[in-house]
Amino acid sequence: MQFERDHSCQSWHSLLKRAVTTKRKQRPSLYQLPPNAIGNVPPAIERCISHITQYGLKVDGLYRRCGLATKVSSLVEALSRSPKTAPLEKDEQGLLDAAGALKQYVRQHVVLIPQTQRELWVKAAAHTEETLRLATYRRLLKKMPPDNRITLNALCGHFYIVQLYSVENRMTAQNLALVFVPTLFQELAMNTNMVRLTMELIIHHTLIFLGKEQESDMESEELITKL
């Protein structure tokens, strides 16, 4: 699964919403695959995001409520072996299990923010000006390996869509950030700045991940150095 950086939020949301409301025997990918896109999302993550987007956006407490521990572990094993055939179910409990499996899979198999770059994110999150924080997040993303960047893009974009349905699922961006920050920053999860950072990656997904670049690489380096 790959993301085209210049997709508008509206067109991307339209694709996802169509996937939720359309039933087909063979459904096209939720995400278009431009020939010049860089990086790959693990198939297991793609499968979970697609399944939850199609069937689970209105499930109360999605990602906050726990799935059945044994079922979640079984799903993680199945997703690791064969993502396409892992038995994801469509009822409420099955969707909670799928959400739990996604969280567990990311924790166990994916390092989203490389350890060597984590301190830069901590410094960016501590800045008092929101505009500068968001601009710095964008620049730090450019430093990440392509697979890490596009996977973080996929997850935050998915959570952005989930919080659009917060009236039904009661999962606001802040609630999702509280759930997701331990996966993203592990030992820094209790740092309130990191919770805010995670929430901003969700709320401002379009600007941070899909916005057009306005500064040069040199300017990016200068701002990161100042922080």
UniProtKB/TrEMBL annotation:
GO terms for molecular function: GTPase activator activity; phosphatidylinositol-3,4,5-trisphosphate binding. Residues 28-210 form the Rho-GAP domain. GO terms for biological process: regulation of cell shape; signal transduction. InterPro entries: Arf-Rho-GAP_ANK-PH_domain (IPR052227), Rho_GTPase_activation_prot (IPR008936), RhoGAP_dom (IPR000198). One of its GO terms (cellular component) is cytoplasm. This is Arf-GAP with Rho-GAP domain, ANK repeat and PH domain-containing protein 1-like.
